[in-house]
Structure formats: structure tokens, C-alpha cells
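Supplementary Methods S3. Input chains for the assembly prediction are listed below.
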Amino acid sequence: MHEMFTRSILPAIREKTGETLTRVTKINTFGMGESILGEKIRDLMTRGANPSVGTTVHDGIVSVRIYATGSPAQTAADTDRIRQVVQERLGSLIFGEDEATIEAATAELLKTRRFTISTAESCTGGLLAKLLTDIAGSSAYFMEGWVTYANAAKQDELGISSELIAAHGAVSELVAKAMAEGARRRSETDFGLATTGVAGPDGGSPEKPVGTVWIALAYPGGTLAQRFTFPGDRSAIRMRASQMALAMLRWHILGAKPPTL
Amino acid sequence: MHEMFTRSILPAIREKTGETLTRVTKINTFGMGESILGEKIRDLMTRGANPSVGTTVHDGIVSVRIYATGSPAQTAADTDRIRQVVQERLGSLIFGEDEATIEAATAELLKTRRFTISTAESCTGGLLAKLLTDIAGSSAYFMEGWVTYANAAKQDELGISSELIAAHGAVSELVAKAMAEGARRRSETDFGLATTGVAGPDGGSPEKPVGTVWIALAYPGGTLAQRFTFPGDRSAIRMRASQMALAMLRWHILGAKPPTL
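Predicted C-alpha cells for the full assembly:
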């Protein structure tokens, strides 16, 4: 209702009355820090310009806000012009506008392409599955998830050998890949998505400090994995790792080069 | 720091200065609606009384707030007196004070008693496991979780027969119990905790409307299950179901009669 009103009804009313309006558009991105992202669109962010452009960050999501002031027709044209430049510069970092979330964008992509997915989580403890099932109709793409917190669970459920865990540690590229592959194989889904890391506050080491997370994606034809070091407390690390897993899946489906890798 | 300051430092300063203070205490409960709970302590909530008592509700948690005004010694004594009455009336509905959460209270109980747990989730989609692993050191009690969203997953992972699902439906007492028992058996934990329900917005029927959730707990010696109908949207239903699962576990461990059952 809110979106309908601001996007359609309000502009229509103002068009009839000839009133000047400020059209606000929020372009949401994930995968690049606010300051580095800001550098890429620095020239758009001139103080006092119309449209004016700025960035905000909330819960890991960096949003580019466009404020265009003028007649309905003029603000629509100005917004489109800036939107196009932002899209050219930020590409696959963008997952949606206004109220879009990364989980809804990923879900939409899975639904449209008729892909199925399973998850294998250690440090995110169920949060990744929770995000994937937050969306109504998620049973179309989400089949099954494992929270293999104990090493015994990783072995029993996902077929990961105790030797592999002993040799590399539970937080490692090979264990992350084996988790993703185990989930994909057992559930017979198109994708298996896995996380294993140190959410803290305890459990960190010089080699694997708190915030270290391996994320792996098993897909038809291969498995990719990437190591991250997320900042923040336990809750922030778990959320960033889950969001990044969704982003990696999205970039893979779109055939986009992951911008942070 | 905030708690240290308000609980210890501020009262100590005021004791020295002889100042009058208002001591605020929040007693957190789960498992009974605000209005029915209010009836049980109606006589404490007289307007203008000191201490004054009121209730607030946030995210399913009903809190009794005690506001005592006077000298440090007097407010401490007054608060204790009211707290005792509230405890007598509300018993096992209370899980903690001030910033306590139901997940932290449950985790503390599992840790102290050295119990282990596994989860099997359908409608909550990983949220129950997420809540149980929100707490640092959760690997001491949380071993393993399944998000068996598809019926095939319930069969393959938890050993639930397709005949049982066909005869009773995935949202049923027997399937909830079989999920809890399957999780407990496979992971060899003390407890298996399961949810299966209709989170909506689609999938409801006259017999099982949106909000219908079966929660089951498998424990050493048996399995209990209870049907609930939670109000609200998809997000609220999933949160209430997860909180209720934790509350049922807590009541069972404490040997308390579940107040809502």
C-alpha cells in the first residue's frame, strides 16, 4: 500500500495539481563497503545538485538514495538518468530498489529459474535457512537444510570424513566445499550452499580469527568457495555470512563476476 | 555496562546522596496473553500506587514492570515484595528479568544441566536452530538441526514413513512427534524439538488454518506434543512457534505444568 501510494497515486495526484515534488529512490546493494562504493559514484554526489545522491548503510546493505525535485515528469526523467549511471557503475552489486531485501531477490531468482536449493550451516546456525524460508512460497525452491554444528553431525549427515576435518579443521575451504556438496547430493537439489566459520566471541585463533567464514556453493558442474573476514559481533557476523552466501548464489546464477572476490 | 550502571552504580551514588530514586524492574514472561496475565495481578496495578505495576508486550514477550519510588533501601524492599507476589502468581511463565531473552534463559538451563539438543523444523525454517545458536558457547548443548521443508526430507533424514504423512498430513501430531523422535535418535541428544505448521499466507484450510502449528518434544522416556494456533503474519507465526518450542522445553526441564496447555 505504502509503495503503491508513493510510486503511483501520489505522483498522479501531483501531476494533476502541477505541484513540485521530491521523488526519492533507494537502490540497494550488497557486497562492497560504503566508502569504496561511494568512490565509484563520487561525481554524482555533488553537494546541492539536483538530483542529489547519497549513500546510507543499514544491516550490511549499502543503499544509494536519489532525491529528484521538480515536476513529476522531470523528476522521473532525472531519476532514470541517474539510475542508469548507478547501474552501469555498480552492476551486480545491486539487488533491488526501495523495500527489496537480498533474501527476497534471491528467492525470486530461484523461483523464476525453477532452481532448488539445500543448505548446510555451521556458524550461521540456521539463519541462512531462515532467510531463504522467510518468503511466502519458499517450498517451491527450498527443500532441506542441515545445521551441522557438531563435527559428528558433519560426518553423519553430510558424509564428511573425520580425516578431512582433522587435517584442515572444520573452518576450512575443503570442509565448506564438502558440506555444500554433501547437502546438494543428499537432497538432490540444483544448489547446495554452506557456511562454516568462527562467529565468536570465543573460538578465534591467529590463523582463523573471530569473523573468519568460509562460504561454499555446489552447483551443477562444480563447487566454488571463498574465505571472508566479517567485522562486528556474533550477531553481525552470522548475518553478514548469511547475506554473503545468498549474494554468492545470486551472482553465480546471474553469471556475474562476484564484485568482492 | 548499562545494567551495571543502573543496578549497582546509580543506586550506590543515590544512597550516598540520600536522593529519591525510581527503581524500574522488568519481569519477563512467555506463554500467556497480556490481558489474561493482567487479570492475575490486577490488584497490584492500582492507579497511583507506589510501587506502580504495569504490563507491556513486545515480540510475544509480556513484561511486568515495577516502578518503585523512594529511598534506595525502600525501593529495594518494595520491589522485592512485589516481585515475590508476581512470582507466586505467574510461576513458570517467568523466564527472567530486564534484558533476559527466552533463548538465553533456555540456553542457560541446557548448559547448567548439561543437556544436549537437536531440532527438526518445518514451518519455522531454521529460526528455532538460529535462536538456540544465538548464544555464545551454544556448541556445548546444540548438536544438530534439520530443516525438513520438503516431505521427502522428512522421510529421508528423520525416518518418517510416507504412509504416516499421507494418512495424517505433514502438519499433525504424529508427524511432529516422529520428527522430534527422529532428530533425537539420529543425533543421540537428550532432547529432540520439532515444529510443523502452516506459516502462511497460503496453505491454510478450514481444519488447519494459517497459524496452526504442532510442536513436539522428544525426551528421555517419552514424547509430548501440543497444537497451537498463533495469530499474526508469517513472520510473527514463525517467531511465536519458535519461542513456544523453547518455552515447552524449558517447562519440561523445570518439571513445570505448561501454563497454556
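The beta strands of chain A are 21-29, 52-58, 61-70, 94-97, 117-121, 142-148, 191-197, 212-219, 222-229. The mean pLDDT of chain A is 94.
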